[in-house]
Design a protein that fits this description.
The protein is 34% helix and 12% strand. It is α/β, with parallel strands linked by helices.
């Protein structure tokens, strides 16, 4: 005959059963996205904080910020790629200013960030009216702005500033009450496992398995960004990049507040859309945000002309047009290698913030109305992508039209039953 089971033993057994059931359910909940289908990932709701934020600040800053030089209309952060492709302008600039034997890697010790004050940056972004920040943690040159174990000797702690730039800015941004996001380049131009743009695209597998995936997880685990802006995907498929697995893992790690963009390789078709130097988009199937610099480049380009910078009026009109169209804007700043954001860029941010102090109610948390703008009579101007990158078509379509052309007189947004009109 079995001994009687005490009331305490029975309760203990019940408690263990409940605990085991809870842990099992929690484990299932926490891992529900990593093995999910694309359809499941795409159906996941976008977090409210992102759809309501409207304005983010992009920061392109790295080794390329030392030369900070390119053609007047080119991306300065692509300096290394210009050297690889034989761009005479960049090659001549580096030879004339640094010597014939100087290599791109030699810029890293000169990237000192000695004037970098993360709290000052965060306060500037808050004053600009931004609700989140996106720092380029690693661009296509592979240089990491954190002490990555997967980039020994090529990160901001091992060579250059001697500082964890991602960590310092993340802390300052969150202290200022803003959300923190990180840009991460999926490809690298000079990685020995796969040289993006040089090696055949379908040979990227070893690089993905041994470098990209573990480094991405290292970055996310260390800093837990609310937003991931992936890039450098356009030569590969999402399957080759293991994007479905990475996105799902990230969602599981960060929870419902996590959000990703739309640059994960062919076939992904997920994330908020990121038109770059465009007129916005008509698609409304998911959130979108215009991505651009105040001038023509993302990284600081000291060869850029003053006329390339948006005026305060053009910047405000561009932003209002994006929000009225149902989107938002991630506006870029390009600090110098010493860590100072150029004063003209700071001024533009403060001017945008001053406008938002007055008009923010018509921006934050709003949605697209049945129409985005009211046009005057006359033929409406049309623009190409190049017009948006190299000119100021928004200015032409609003306050400085060509003779006889129609202009946008008002931009509309709505919030619940309230309709707003921005002049």
């Amino acid at each position: 005959m079995k001994p009687p089971i005490s009331r305490f033993s029975a309760l203990a057994g019940l408690a263990l059963l409940i605990l085991a059931t809870h842990l099992s359910a929690q484990e299932t909940l926490e891992s529900r996205f990593e093995a999910a289908t694309w359809e499941t990932l795409r159906a996941r709701p976008y977090p409210g904080w992102f759809t309501e934020a409207k304005l983010g600040i992009f920061i392109h800053w790295g080794v390329y910020s030392v030369p900070s030089w390119s053609g007047p209309e080119d991306y300065a952060e692509w300096f290394l790629r210009g050297l690889q492709t034989g761009d005479s302008l960049r090659i001549r600039y580096m030879r004339d200013n640094y010597g014939a034997d100087f290599e791109y890697e030699d810029f890293a010790p000169l990237f000192k960030a000695e004037l970098f004050e993360p709290a000052q940056w965060a306060e500037l972004f808050r004053q600009a009216g931004a609700r989140y920040v996106v720092l380029v943690s690693k661009h296509h040159d592979g240089y990491a702005l954190w002490p990555s174990a997967y980039s020994p000797g090529w990160n901001s702690v091992d060579v250059g500033p001697g500082r964890d730039l991602v960590g310092e800015l993340t802390e300052a941004v969150r202290t200022a009450g803003l959300r923190m996001g990180l840009y991460y380049s999926l490809g690298e131009w000079t990685n020995e496992l796969h040289r993006w743009y040089t090696d055949p695209p379908d040979s990227i597998g070893v690089y993905v398995d041994r470098h990209m995936v573990p480094q991405f997880k290292e970055l996310v685990s260390a800093y837990r960004p609310d937003l991931i802006f992936a890039d450098g995907e356009w030569l590969n498929t999402a399957e080759q990049l293991r994007s479905r697995e990475l996105i799902g893992w990230y969602f599981d790690e960060l929870g419902p507040d996590a959000v990703v963009n739309d640059r994960w390789g062919e076939g992904a078709d997920i994330g908020f859309r990121t038109p770059e130097y465009s007129s916005g988009i008509e698609l409304t199937d998911r959130p979108w945000t215009e991505v651009r610099g105040i001038g023509r480049s993302f990284g600081l380009n000291r060869n850029e002309k003053l006329e390339a910078y948006m005026t305060p009026e053009a910047l405000v009109h561009f932003f209002a047009a994006a929000v009225a169209g149902g989107g938002g804007m991630i506006l870029n700043v390009g600090p110098a290698g010493d860590g100072q954001i150029p004063l003209l860029q700071q001024e533009r941010l403060r001017q945008l913030g001053a406008w938002l102090d007055v008009n923010g109610e018509a921006i934050y948390g709003t949605r697209r109305w049945v129409t985005d703008a009211q046009w005057s009579d006359g033929p409406r101007p049309t623009f190409t992508k190049d017009d948006h990158h190299y000119g100021e078509p928004v200015f032409q379509a609003t306050i400085s039209p060509k003779p006889g052309e129609a202009v946008k007189q008002l931009f509309f947004t709505r919030k619940g039953d309230t309709l707003y009109a921005c002049l």
